[in-house]
Amino acid sequence: MNKARKVYESMMENDFCSQWLGIRPMVIEEGHCVLEFTVRKEMLNGFGTLHGGIAYAAADSALAFASNSYGRISPLINGNMVYSKSAKIGDVLTATAKVISLGNKKADIDVVISCKGHDEPFYFFRGTVYRTSKEHEITKFK
């Protein structure tokens, strides 16, 4: 099992929000993460579309797994979301996160959330993480 997968599994043990989202890992690699989840009724807003906070949470989860995949604890310090289209109940969404710049103290990550059966992405997220010097426990002795 690679380091990125070990970090993902370690983080998921206590990531109750990502568990609640019902995310399914499709790709977990260093600097890259693809998650999939299905929009459920309890994720909808008053207009019957995916609540913006849920879309943000899914993007944040994908970002977290991509940015932490190198083994260093890297919390989000800034994030911006663009809501281009609205997902509905039953839609299967895919959140693809890629590290676009990696430095010693920070990294920038882009996340695109697309919907199966649609050509254009629904949501765009860009986030910056602070790369602490603290390593994930799972990677310390490897």
Give the helices and strands, then pairings.
Blueprint: H1 3-14, H2 16-21, E1 24-29, E2 32-38, H3 52-67, E3 76-83, E4 92-102, E5 106-115, E6 123-130, H4 137-140
Antiparallel strand pairs: 1-2, 2-4, 3-6, 4-5, 5-6
What does this structure look like?
The protein has 142 residues and is of the alpha+beta class. It has one domain (3-140): Thiol Ester Dehydrase, Chain A (Roll), CATH 3.10.129.10. 27% of the residues lie in helices and 35% in strands. Strands 1-2-4-5-6-3 form a six-stranded antiparallel beta sheet, with helices on one face. The radius of gyration is 15 Å and the shape is globular.
Provide a compact summary of the structure.
This protein is of the alpha+beta class.
* Helix-strand pattern: HHEEHEEEEH
Assess the beta-strand content as a share of residues: 35-45%
Number of strands: 6
Q: Work out the count of structural domains.
A: 1
**Helix count from the secondary structure assignment:** 4
General shape = globular
For the sheet with most strands, the description reads: 6 strands, antiparallel
Distance between the termini: 12 Å
What topology, given as strand order, has the largest sheet?
1-2-4-5-6-3
Which CATH top level class fits? Alpha Beta
CATH architecture: Roll
Would you tell me the overall average pLDDT? 95
Q: Low-confidence parts lasting 5 or more residues at pLDDT below 50?
A: none
Please state the CA-atom Rg, rounded to the nearest Å: 15 Å
From the structure above, extract its key features:
142 residues; alpha+beta; Thiol Ester Dehydrase, Chain A
